[in-house]
């Protein structure tokens, strides 16, 4: 590359990153994914290092973030609020540890903390009272957000310390709150927030603290300035004593192996934490040593952020196709330029419904932000660059089913389009695929391709045919042999003894997922009882809402469903609730409803299994009808609600005792 090309590249990178900074810090509306920002940033940093003569004065590598944007009063930080140098690479992390070791002369104690993905704030207490709270701003000057910080219920307004002290922490919004807020916005047709961080940043800057209080802001404090303590760890303990929220995963250690272990452990917990983290911060513990190592203009030299792989990434939208699901719902699917995200290659993402395409104004050619959350299927969050878009609308509303050309209809609320042709091949294929899937009847040897072939060859028409397949014909088919035909036969046979909840789930009733199927199964003794249940009986069940009740009621009266159920009955498929959780059991938890909340000593799924094995129903919401709330440490709103409603609250240990009792 020639010098003038290099100069141009530095200019372009600087401009692009400055634009990204403004979007991210001032408007809380990022135009690229963090991982991409970090990559471009490093590229610029290394070019600037090689060609310092081309580095621009307004380079993002020289500053923390753009100036504040002005609606709130400003405040000069006494100690600058710095950024952190970051790495995605364990080898680089080790280099940092080695450098520190070298400069200090021995391997010091470090504190490893989750890096909460929120917004940094500085909080001043004076005469024992919360006096003022300020955003980081550009690191030197921040904005006064005291009115909004006061809405954080976990943060005490008074502490038993009269000296003037400064606490720093990360304000965040829990995933649960974020999810609810976005759901409400979706219902109202408003644009969605990209992630909890952006929402927290926007909420902090609200002028009206009542609106801010509705967002449910929370905080983890991670630094204490102006105290007598000798080390960071001591400071953390001090603020914990004052009842300021401190993250309970923080760890003190003085060996490399343990640092690596903590990184691994917290990584495994990451998706189950109630808040977003984007990595860990590793800090030298002792203040004298911190001082010895010093700071640069942008970040301290005694700390580093180790970032986990991103869960969001940007890529190009190639086109939008239509897919017909097992219930006939026609969903638009984003076909993407393949991109690596959290260990797998993503080339498709769901778009849920047609409204969403319009709301997000998606067009082929756009660069979109996609996210892999708790669900397996990634989703499109938003358009982040529309420069090379094609003007054409990506899809027009279909007039007929894209799979069978049959009649389609809108649902009552006008959100989804459905193919209503009972013979639609796409519906049948997906219904069978769902029926045999692992969480449903768990029949192995019937992948999507095989089902397609069986449908084509007329071996299979619908779910009911699964129990009288022509195995002689199958064993003579291409790619099959007597062995695989026999395996298929035994897998089909075995599935006849499955539990009732599996069968209910397998029927593929709209709005009946695995959990709802379990709830239904535990409320009825048999499939026949469920089939004859009235709408009123269904709606009386905890956690079964109107939409689900009406879907169950109507689906089970659909002629195709009736004939499938009859075929399954003839095939001897189990329709009954197993005896273990029927009335004969005298287990203490039998038939009881349970909700888990707070931090438990083992993964929540394990406890849920225990509860179900004891005949209990696991719910997610607290209501007056709930029998037990099992509360772990740090339980919050659910615990309060249970208190108010007079629900029995038990500890993890008490729960385990109940489980083992008869
Ligand atoms: N997507 C974009 O367009 C875009 C634009 C600008 C910045 N960014 C992202 O932001 C990063 C730089 O932002 P930054 O300087 O605000 O933050 P940072 O990632 O460099 O880290 C510093 C911040 O970490 C936070 N933090 C959380 N937990 C902490 C703990 N336990 N101890 C200490 N600090 C803790 C604090 O807010 C602190 O200010 C970039 O690396 C990039 O990923 C993205
Ligand atoms: Zn169709």
UniProtKB/TrEMBL annotation:
Keywords: DNA damage, DNA repair, DNA replication, Ligase, Magnesium, Manganese, Metal-binding, NAD, Zinc
Catalytic activity: NAD(+) + (deoxyribonucleotide)n-3'-hydroxyl + 5'-phospho-(deoxyribonucleotide)m = (deoxyribonucleotide)n+m + AMP + beta-nicotinamide D-nucleotide
CDD domains xref list: BRCT_DNA_ligase_like (cd17748), LIGANc (cd00114)
E.C. numbers: 6.5.1.2
Its job: DNA ligase that catalyzes the formation of phosphodiester linkages between 5'-phosphoryl and 3'-hydroxyl groups in double-stranded DNA using NAD as a coenzyme and as the energy source for the reaction. It is essential for DNA replication and repair of damaged DNA.
Residues binding NAD(+), per UniProt: 34-38, 83-84, 113, 136, 170, 283, 307
PROSITE patterns, per database record: BRCT, DNA_LIGASE_N1, DNA_LIGASE_N2
Gene3D superfamilies in the record: 5' to 3' exonuclease, C-terminal subdomain (1.10.150.20), 6.20.10.30, BRCT domain (3.40.50.10190), DNA ligase/mRNA capping enzyme (3.30.470.30), Helix hairpin bin (1.10.287.610), Nucleic acid-binding proteins (2.40.50.140)
Binding site for Zn(2+): 401, 404, 419, 424
The protein's name: DNA ligase
Catalytic residues of the enzyme: 115
Domain of life of the organism encoding this protein: Bacteria
GO MF terms, alphabetically ordered: DNA binding; DNA ligase (NAD+) activity; metal ion binding
Transmembrane segments: none
Cofactor: Mg(2+); Mn(2+)
Residue ranges of domain BRCT in the record: 584-662
Underlying gene: ligA
Sequence similarity: Belongs to the NAD-dependent DNA ligase family. LigA subfamily.
């Amino acid at each position: 590359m020639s010098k003038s090309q290099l100069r141009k590249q530095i200019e372009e990178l600087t401009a692009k990153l400055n634009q990204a900074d403004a979007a991210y810090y001032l408007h809380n509306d990022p135009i690229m994914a963090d991982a991409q920002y970090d990559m471009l940033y490093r590229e610029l940093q290394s070019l600037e290092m090689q060609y310092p003569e081309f580095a621009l004065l307004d380079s993002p590598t020289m500053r923390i973030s753009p100036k504040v944007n002005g609606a709130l009063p400003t405040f000069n930080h006494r100690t600058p609020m710095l950024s952190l140098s970051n790495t995605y690479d364990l080898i680089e992390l080790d280099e940092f540890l080695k450098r520190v070791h070298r400069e200090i002369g021995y391997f010091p104690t470090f504190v490893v903390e989750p890096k909460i993905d929120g917004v940094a704030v500085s909080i001043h207490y004076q005469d024992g009272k919360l006096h003022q709270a300020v955003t980081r701003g550009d690191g030197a000057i921040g904005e006064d957000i005291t009115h909004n910080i006061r809405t954080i219920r976990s943060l005490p307004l008074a502490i038993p310390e009269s000296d003037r002290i400064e606490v720093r922490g990360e304000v965040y919004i829990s995933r649960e709150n974020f999810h609810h807020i976005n759901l409400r916005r979706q219902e109202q047709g408003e644009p969605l927030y990209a992630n909890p961080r952006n929402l927290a940043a926007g909420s902090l800057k609200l002028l009206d603290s009542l609106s801010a209080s509705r967002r449910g802001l929370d905080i983890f404090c991670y630094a204490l300035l102006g105290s007598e303590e000798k080390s960071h760890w001591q400071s953390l303990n001090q603020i914990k004593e004052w009842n300021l929220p401190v993250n309970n995963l923080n760890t003190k250690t003085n060996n490399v192996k343990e640092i690596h272990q903590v990184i691994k452990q917290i990584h495994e917990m990451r998706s189950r934490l109630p808040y977003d983290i984007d990595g860990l911060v590793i800090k030298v513990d002792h203040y004298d040593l911190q001082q010895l190592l010093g700071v640069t203009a942008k970040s301290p030299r005694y700390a580093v952020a180790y970032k986990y792989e991103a869960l969001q990434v940007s890529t190009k939208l190639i086109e939008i196709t239509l897919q017909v699901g097992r219930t006939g719902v026609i969903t638009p699917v984003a076909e993407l330029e393949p991109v690596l995200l959290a260990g797998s290659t993503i080339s498709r993402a769901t778009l849920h419904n047609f409204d969403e395409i319009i709301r997000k104004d998606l067009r082929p050619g756009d660069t979109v932000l996609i996210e892999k959350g708790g669900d397996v299927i990634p989703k499109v969050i938003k358009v982040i660059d529309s420069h090379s878009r094609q003007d054409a609308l990506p899809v027009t509303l279909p007039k007929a089913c894209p799979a069978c050309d049959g009649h389609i209809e809108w649902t009552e609320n006008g959100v989804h389009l459905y193919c209503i042709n009972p013979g639609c091949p796409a519906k049948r294929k997906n219904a069978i695929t769902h029926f045999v899937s692992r969480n449903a009847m768990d029949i192995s040897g019937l992948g999507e391709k095989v089902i397609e072939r069986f449908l084509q060859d007329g071996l299979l028409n619908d779910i009911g045919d699964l129990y009288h397949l022509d195995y002689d014909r199958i064993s003579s088919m291409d790619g099959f042999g007597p062995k695989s035909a026999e395996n298929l036969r035994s897998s089909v046979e075995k599935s006849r003894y499955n539990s009732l909840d599996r069968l209910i789930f397998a029927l593929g009733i709209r709005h009946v997922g695995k959990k709802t199927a379990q709830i239904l199964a535990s409320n009825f003794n048999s499939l026949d009882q469920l089939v004859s249940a009235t709408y009123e009986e269904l709606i009386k069940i905890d956690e079964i809402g109107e939409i689900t009740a009406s879907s169950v009621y109507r689906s089970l009266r659909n002629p195709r469903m009736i004939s499938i159920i009859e075929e399954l009955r003839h095939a001897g498929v189990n329709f009954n609730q197993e005896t273990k959780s029927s009335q004969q059991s005298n287990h203490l938890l039998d038939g009881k409803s349970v909700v888990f909340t707070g931090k438990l000593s083992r993964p929540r799924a394990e406890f849920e299994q225990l509860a179900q094995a004891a005949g209990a129903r696991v719910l997610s919401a607290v209501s007056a009808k709930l029998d037990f709330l099992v509360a772990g440490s740090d339980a919050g709103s659910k615990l309060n609600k249970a208190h108010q409603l007079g629900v029995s609250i038990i500890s993890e240990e008490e729960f385990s005792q109940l489980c083992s009792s008869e």
